[in-house]
Amino acid sequence: MGDCPGLLTQANFDDPSLFQRREAELSAWALPARELYTGRQHRYMMNGVNAVRHRFGISVCSVKIISAGYGLVDEEQRLAPYEATFQQRRPRWIQEQAKRLGIPAAVRKAVIGFDAVLFLLGKEYLISIHLPLFPGVNQRFIFFTSNVQLPFHPHSIIVPAGHTETRFGAGVMTLKGKMFERFASGLCSAPEKWSELASDNSSATMLALIEAGQGNP
Predict the structure, then answer these.
(1) Half-sphere exposure of residue 142, counting CA atoms within 13 Å on the CB side?
(2) Number of domains present in the structure of the chain
(3) Which residues in the chain land under pLDDT 70?
């Protein structure tokens, strides 16, 4: 297989006919989303996901990824390599693009039926889901974020993920993934804590599990 002939760009996504042609040209380089993304935050997160699945079973959790090009995608969905992002975009553009991609509706559908949903999203990606999200009865929406000024539902659980939390072993740009990796390690070591997490209206249990996983590889 030769070198990949470029990447899908925002202009490609904005032009349906051009997108179809370019995606077909790149089909040989398509990968499941879980493998396509190679940033450290994603790798940390998937380390945690794999640990939890190894400890509790494959079906214990589901991973969805917000893509500025493809919309909300499943971890197994094959994507052509692309270059499109919400980062450093204006909120109005993000909201309009997200609506066009069906992200807000897809997110609200995807969270149905889960006791807890964890969001590891930067500010622009939180804007794309059109907050607030309304949790169901006894459902926990847990956001790893330092952007507390966003319009979260009052029953949301906010886990601080800013400069103070870099003590968990990662810089701010990759911190959410590292915190999730540590959380997964803590939960695997103390599975009885899940019931506490599911009933805790604060971030205390989550932070305790992250602390507990701090010393684990």
Answers:
(1) 25
(2) 1
(3) 1-2, 215-217
